[in-house]
């Protein structure tokens, strides 16, 4: 995607071999690029949400392994790096997938060959993510085209959190169909959930869409059901941090409520699902997926820009009031209209997913 006419990915290796990332903590008010040079810096970037979004977390972890292999390529270092990076975020499955993939590639190699192989595989994982998301967009474009053919005016799409290019290496998952529709000349309008408490919708999705000139409105999290009741939403599309083998979807907190509202009002609810986000070993999402509980300060404080341009956090609750901060919830498969994958639209059922990805399911079974 482009920022002020310049194309960017969210993570890349510069000409000097240093990995660079967009530090998303400061958006939309400041655009900052920072280098990650050590394993500790990669762990901090993932844990403290300099980077966020399941696909980007996985790509960042892969590069974290590569950087560490250039320092110490021993078996002990590889094992320790897997643990250090895996412990940063418990819910998004792409993190474990990328670490497992790096370990699979590197373990059979002698230490002297690991640094080069690790950098090559990390770069491939990034390129693969870009193509996966591009394909998701092309398949999602067909859904938007079908809706556009049935109505006058723009196709109204509701999103939740940020499943845009900032959550991936490029294109995004839920936003990829929107970008493809815009490029195809199909008028779209996006309702952007603010997504408390980190406000990824307000700060990231809105910034993306604004940068690309795509029509959108920011709405509070609880407005989506009202808009659906009044026929103002044609479809909902969200991302996912982990999807079970039977199609339960774990995504940013608040997704479940949007799915319930969509079902009650006959609005199709789609999930943009890159295949590395499927956890084939988990079936019951509510009972089996670990839900990250983040610091309550994310709920009691809000970050914004003051009139004089300073970025500050302010307290919005009384002193002494505690806060719960589960970062994700699980939407049962029966509430999902379809899973939008790089291979096409898939039913949110165990049989449907197995038919769409027989190779991946068989590999896990083996």
TrEMBL record:
<feature type="binding site">
    <location>
        <begin position="251"/>
        <end position="252"/>
    </location>
    <ligand>
        <name>substrate</name>
    </ligand>
</feature>
<dbReference type="InterPro" id="IPR005251">
    <property type="entry name" value="IF-M1Pi"/>
</dbReference>
<feature type="binding site">
    <location>
        <position position="89"/>
    </location>
    <ligand>
        <name>substrate</name>
    </ligand>
</feature>
<dbReference type="GO" id="GO:0019509">
    <property type="term" value="P:L-methionine salvage from methylthioadenosine"/>
</dbReference>
<keyword id="KW-0486">Methionine biosynthesis</keyword>
<dbReference type="Pfam" id="PF01008">
    <property type="entry name" value="IF-2B"/>
</dbReference>
<comment type="function">
    <text>Catalyzes the interconversion of methylthioribose-1-phosphate (MTR-1-P) into methylthioribulose-1-phosphate (MTRu-1-P). Also catalyzes the interconversion of 5-deoxyribose 1-phosphate and 5-deoxyribulose 1-phosphate. Part of a bifunctional DHAP-shunt salvage pathway for SAM by-products.</text>
</comment>
<protein>
    <recommendedName>
        <fullName>Methylthioribose-1-phosphate isomerase</fullName>
        <ecNumber>5.3.1.23</ecNumber>
    </recommendedName>
</protein>
<feature type="binding site">
    <location>
        <position position="200"/>
    </location>
    <ligand>
        <name>substrate</name>
    </ligand>
</feature>
<comment type="pathway">
    <text>Amino-acid biosynthesis; L-methionine biosynthesis via salvage pathway; L-methionine from S-methyl-5-thio-alpha-D-ribose 1-phosphate: step 1/6.</text>
</comment>
<keyword id="KW-0028">Amino-acid biosynthesis</keyword>
<feature type="binding site">
    <location>
        <begin position="52"/>
        <end position="54"/>
    </location>
    <ligand>
        <name>substrate</name>
    </ligand>
</feature>
<dbReference type="InterPro" id="IPR011559">
    <property type="entry name" value="Initiation_fac_2B_a/b/d"/>
</dbReference>
<dbReference type="InterPro" id="IPR042529">
    <property type="entry name" value="IF_2B-like_C"/>
</dbReference>
<keyword id="KW-0413">Isomerase</keyword>
<feature type="site" description="Transition state stabilizer">
    <location>
        <position position="161"/>
    </location>
</feature>
<dbReference type="InterPro" id="IPR027363">
    <property type="entry name" value="M1Pi_N"/>
</dbReference>
<feature type="active site" description="Proton donor">
    <location>
        <position position="241"/>
    </location>
</feature>
<dbReference type="InterPro" id="IPR000649">
    <property type="entry name" value="IF-2B-related"/>
</dbReference>
<dbReference type="GO" id="GO:0046523">
    <property type="term" value="F:S-methyl-5-thioribose-1-phosphate isomerase activity"/>
</dbReference>
<comment type="similarity">
    <text>Belongs to the EIF-2B alpha/beta/delta subunits family. MtnA subfamily.</text>
</comment>
<dbReference type="InterPro" id="IPR037171">
    <property type="entry name" value="NagB/RpiA_transferase-like"/>
</dbReference>
């Amino acid at each position: 995607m482009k920022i002020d006419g310049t194309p960017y990915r969210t993570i890349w290796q510069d000409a000097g071999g240093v990995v660079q990332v967009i530090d998303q903590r400061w958006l939309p008010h400041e655009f900052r690029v920072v280098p990650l040079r050590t394993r500790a810096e990669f762990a901090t970037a993932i844990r403290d949400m300099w980077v966020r979004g399941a696909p980007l977390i996985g790509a960042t972890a892969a590069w974290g392994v590569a950087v560490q292999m250039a320092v110490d390529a021993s078996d002990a270092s590889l094992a320790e790096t897997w643990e250090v990076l895996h412990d940063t975020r418990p819910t998004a499955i792409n993190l474990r997938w990328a670490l497992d993939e790096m370990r699979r590639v590197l373990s059979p190699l002698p230490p002297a060959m690991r640094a080069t192989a690790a950098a090559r595989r990390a770069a491939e994982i990034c390129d693969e993510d870009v193509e996966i998301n591009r394909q998701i967009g092309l398949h999602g474009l067909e859904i938007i085209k079908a809706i556009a053919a049935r109505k006058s005016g723009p196709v109204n799409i509701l999103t939740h959190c940020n499943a845009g290019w900032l959550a991936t290496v490029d294109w995004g998952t839920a936003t990829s169909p929107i970008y493809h529709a815009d490029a195809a000349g199909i008028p779209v309008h996006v309702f952007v959930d603010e997504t408390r408490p980190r406000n990824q919708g307000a700060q990231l999705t809105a910034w993306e869409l604004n940068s690309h000139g795509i029509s959108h409105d920011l709405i509070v999290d609880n407005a989506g059901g009202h808009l659906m009741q009044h026929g103002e939403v044609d479809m909902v599309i969200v991302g996912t941090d982990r999807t079970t083998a039977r199609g339960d979807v774990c995504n940013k907190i608040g997704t479940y409520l949007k799915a319930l509202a969509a079902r009650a009002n006959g609005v199709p609810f789609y999930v943009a699902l890159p295949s590395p986000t499927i956890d084939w070993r988990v079936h019951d999402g509510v009972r089996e997926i670990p839900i990250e509980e983040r610091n309550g300060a994310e709920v009691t404080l809000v970050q914004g820009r003051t009139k004089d341009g300073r970025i500050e956090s302010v307290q919005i609750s009384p002193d002494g009031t505690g806060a719960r901060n589960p970062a994700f919830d699980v939407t049962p498969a029966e509430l999902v209209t379809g899973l939008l994958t790089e291979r096409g639209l898939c039913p949110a059922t165990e049989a449907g997913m197995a038919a769409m990805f027989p190779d991946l399911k068989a590999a896990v079974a083996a």
